[in-house]
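ARCHIVE CARD
Drawer: 12
Card no.: 0347
Subject: one protein chain, sequence and derived structure
Cross-reference: see card 0346
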Amino acid sequence: MPLPQKSWFRIADVAKRWSMPLSDIEDYALDEMLQLSVFVVGVPAEAGSWEIGGGGKTAALQDLPVLSGPQPLLRGSLLEIFRDGLAEVRAFRSMPPMTYLHIASGASPVIVRRDDLIVTREERDRFERDHGTVSTVSEPVPTDVWYSDDFSRIRLANEWYSFGPKQAAVLRLLKAAGETDNPWCDGKRLLDEADAETMRLIDLFKRKPEWRRLVLADGKGRYRLNILFLSPERRRIRLFRRFGFPVAKARSEARGVAANIR
């Protein structure tokens, strides 16, 4: 008799499935490419939306749910967990934008440790679809990356690809956005700025299926460049600056990551 499918997995199990170290799972989570969660039971919460007015942003309470099951964690909570080993979580990630999900006033925070982190089946499957992860075959992580200044030619894992002017223009726009704190770009805006005549990014690259290895999608019409084309050191320094860590410490951390890669 077959066993029922699990609805969530510990990150160690996901790392084993993808043949990668746990540190890569953590990096993907901090880059907001992979959503990590924590399983909770009976946590009173407050849900609502943020409203913008003359006095600034105010909270409008809409519901008082009791949370049970996997709850997605915010980037700040994850950083604290990876840095200190645990975090007192008082808020969870909510959808759509301009909404919030907080633990109810007066209720105790949820203590989340590294070993408590999980990935839902839905999120695991989404990541595998978006990034072509193959669980049955162990493949080396591609590190041989080169591209021309105009992105008309790219080498990835010893494979060469060429792109037309408008395709290359989109890749340049994604590269520029990837070096900022807002790497995700609206697909229609990318097409407009590249003077493309198509209505969808997938149509622009329809004769270049390899574009899926270079460009990541969030399933909501936004895209970003694969992190392989960004400097790990610059990303790590930017992340630590954003959360108030000394730059010297960030550089030290980045050098350690680079040494491990080599």
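Annotation on reverse: The chain has two domains: 8-131, 145-230. The CA atoms of residues 5 and 120 lie 12 Å apart.
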